[in-house]
Structure formats: structure tokens, C-alpha cells
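Posted in: Protein Modeling Q&A

I'm a second-year student putting together a small comparison for a lab meeting, and my supervisor asked me to include a predicted structure for Secreted protein. I've never done this before, so apologies if this is the wrong subforum. The sequence is pasted below exactly as I got it from our records. If anyone can share the C-alpha cell output, I'd also love a short note on what stands out.
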Amino acid sequence: MTLDRRLFLRTATAGGAVLALGAQGTAPAAAAPGGFPDYRHVRTLLKPGQLSYNPTGEIIFPCIRGVYDKLSNPLGRYYLYYAPHDAPGGICLAYGNSLEGPFTEYKANPIVSNNWSPHYKVSHVSSPHVLWNADARELWLYFHGENNTTRLARSKDGITFTYDRTVLTTAMLPAGSREASYARVFRHDLPSRGAKYVMLFMWNQANDHRDIGWGWSADGRNWTFSQQPLIDHAAVGAVNVSGPHLLTRNGSAYVVYHTDKGSGGDIRITEVGMDFSRRNHLGVFYNSGSAAPESGRAAAPSFGTDGGVPYMIYEAGERLSGAIAVARG
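Accepted answer (user: helix_wrangler)
Welcome! Here is the predicted structure, written out as C-alpha cells:
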């Protein structure tokens, strides 16, 4: 995102449509591919150096959830989950009353550690994605540890979790697969597959390139996984792709994901259709700025709406040395 693009003034309708005027009050800003909002960086929300739980000086993979209409007496209207990646990692929570912040670090982080007896003892846990499971009326946490394993834990309050099971390992994928992590799960009906949930994840294959894999489930616990990538790195001209998120709009489904900095460091978008049969690569969804805090990299987006205004919360900056930031549509 260039500096002159940042100078645009923005207003949003209650339905989330964006109207924009340039710095001179001229041409409107173009929407992102697929008709999505043209998100613009607003501010940094969390920096590792400002956190009490900061074992490695880095944090990644934000997941934002509105809990004001789901939980009794939550700490704030919004729960923001995140984690360090390097050992020991640890699933963390911050809370606030606006998607633009401020967010307050939960005093007893991490809420999930790398040693959860008798279920596992691993070098690290990371990449939290929390789904509101309306069927169970619980918050379901999907997270990885080690990099070849994705796990599930469940909670009634979003803070205290009960371990459930392993939901994905590289053993469920073709031989030679190295990683199956950074998963996000979404409520999405696939009638032809008897599924109500879809998982998107980063899949490091035998060729040591990272693609977007996917799977489907009737209950969010028992999964079937495609043995072919949903989004192949080579198909979009990247070395690696990761951090997928599912969005729907105007009767179709889209996957947004980031590329590594050597492939542009931007967030891109592919239309997959409601039945996941399409592969319509639409290009850049969010163009990372060269200045701090993005410094040429935006990644791992999570989305929410506050007062009818759409927001994207994401990693800003070099991997393992960045921050959690927010952009507004």
C-alpha cells in the first residue's frame, strides 16, 4: 500500500460498503477483488515488548472474535487470540471493547501451554483460531503443536479450555508432507460432502513449498482432507503461501492468504465458489506498505465488523519480529 493510498479519507455505510475520496477530493478508491472493502491500515494493536507474557519477543496469527452476544459477563466485547511461535509458544488472549483497540492482555497468559498433561508435551503451541460453534454453544480452539499436528480444545467462556483431540496430522496427507498447521475452521455447508465445517491450513509438502490445504467435516471434530492443494503456490507465482481465511460475498466463497516476503509479502485472494470447485486467482487483496509497521509484509488476516464497519486484524512486519495491527474497510 503506497503512501498516497493511505491519504484517502474513508467513510463506511452501515452495510459495510466503502466510499472514498482521494487527498484532493477526486477519484474514489477501487474496491478489493471480489467487491470486498479496500482495507487501510489504522494502527498497531499489540507489540511483543509491551506484553507481560513475552518468552521469545515475537507474536503471530491473530484471531478476533466478538463475544458480547455469546458469553455471559465477558472481559470485553471482543476477544483477540494470538501466540508466540517459537518454543515454548503459548496460546494467549487480549480483550477490548472496540476492534480499533485498545486491547488489554489477559493477566494469566498463556491460556494454553506447550505441556498439557496427559494429552501432549511438545516444543511449542501456536496459531490459535477460535470458532464459535453454535451447535455446541462453545468456543472451539484449533491450534498447532508441533508443526505437523493441529489440535482442538473447547471452552464455555473463551478462557478455560478442555482438550478434545488431534484433528489433523501430516499422516493424513500424502507421504513426505512436513507440516499441517496454521489452520482456521469455518461454518460452511458442503451438502455434496455431507459437511457443515471447512478447514483451511498451511501444508508444507515434500518439495518444501507451502500450499493451502483443505478439509471438510460434519461435526468439526472428525475430518476428511483433500490430497491435493486447494491453492498451489506455483499457481499464484509464489514460493510459499499461508495464513488462509474463508470469506463469502454475493453468493460465492473466497480464500484470502498471504505470500512470503520474497513473493511480495501481500495478502492475495482466490475465488473457490460455494462448493470449492473454482480456482479463480484474483490477485492482491491487501497490498502491504513499505513503511513500518508492515515493512513489506502483511499476513494471517482475521476479520470482524464493529458498528457496521469491516475490520481486518493481521500480522504486520517481518515474520517473528512484527506486531498485530488493524485495518479498516
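A couple of things worth pointing out for your meeting: Residues 3-328 form a domain with the Tachylectin-2; Chain A fold (CATH 2.115.10.20). The first helix runs from residue 3 to 6.
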